[in-house]
Amino acid sequence: xxxxxxxxxKMSIIVSRGSLDGIYPALIMANGARxxxxxxxxxxxxxxxxxxxxxxxxxxxxxxxxxSALNMAMPMLGMPMTVPFPTVMGAIPGVSAFATxxxxxxxxxxxxxxxxxxxxxISDSGGKIFACKLAMDMFKxxxxxLMDRVDGVLTVGDFYNESAGAGTHILFT
Amino acid sequence: xxxxxxGTEVDVNEEGYLTDMSQWNEQxxxxxxTEEGLAALTDAHMKVVRYLREQQAKGAALTIRSMGKxxxxxxxxxxxxxxxxxxxxxxxxxxxxxPVGCI
Lengths: 173, 103
Fold this sequence. Notes:
By secondary structure, chain A is an alpha/beta fold. Chain A folds into two domains: 10-58 and 114-173, Hypothetical Protein Ychn, Chain: A, CATH 3.40.1260.10; 61-113, no CATH class. Chain A has helices at residues 20-35, 87-90, 95-109, 115-124, 133-138, 156-162, and strands at 10-15, 39-44, 128-132, 152-154, 168-172. In chain A, β1, α1 (20-35) and β2 form a beta-alpha-beta unit. Chain A starts with 9 loop residues before the first strand and ends with a strand. In chain B, a hairpin with a 2-residue loop joins β1 (2-5) and β2. The chains are: A alpha/beta, B mainly alpha. Chain A binds chain B through residues 28, 31-32, 34-37, 110-113, 117, 121, 124-126, and chain B through 61, 63-66, 68, 74-76, 79, 83-88, 101-103.
């Protein structure tokens, strides 16, 4: 690596979506950062809190409605990528669960852990997990409602302070 | 390319990973560990190194998750033993290729 490149020292990742496909990329990026020796913080806000709430975090689903990028190859239905997944079909009860089941199976093959285990892995690796105070208030959630690896409930200002330092990158997902 | 590590000439790639794991020995491991900024290779380090070499010989894909579940080391211990990129550093010290996965 050339010397003029400034290394990434820390990734502060904001997670605002609560579908399985909305949460996994952030978890993978955070874990990947720790594996490279880069510090990592995750800040869960709005629907992202679904990934921390004990009642929801083991049951997150792939969004099959309003997801125009979803195609018949992605939920592993063995059809070409060029065939779109009809939104009407996605609205049928059970379809999102089925697509989620298929995706979970594929991820397990790649050794991608389920959400709870993934958060534990990131926490064990020294990554920090935070919940957004405002979103907690909005959804009437308390710290006790969240999984035990949550390091704190932060305001936006706290989060920016936590992210301070040269070489920190803040990523919104 | 060739590089002399701990008095032995070995084949390495441009990042310093051994390209032939059979050229590895414990002195080489210790020398790479020093280069990587580790104070010393303890028994705990060597347990991980031996496990990695066994897995590599079997052709298993190595992930941080599989390491944590191996029973050889916990995720926390692995990060403490090899700070700043545990799987990469441990692989380099073990004389096996750099892990290619993202997990």
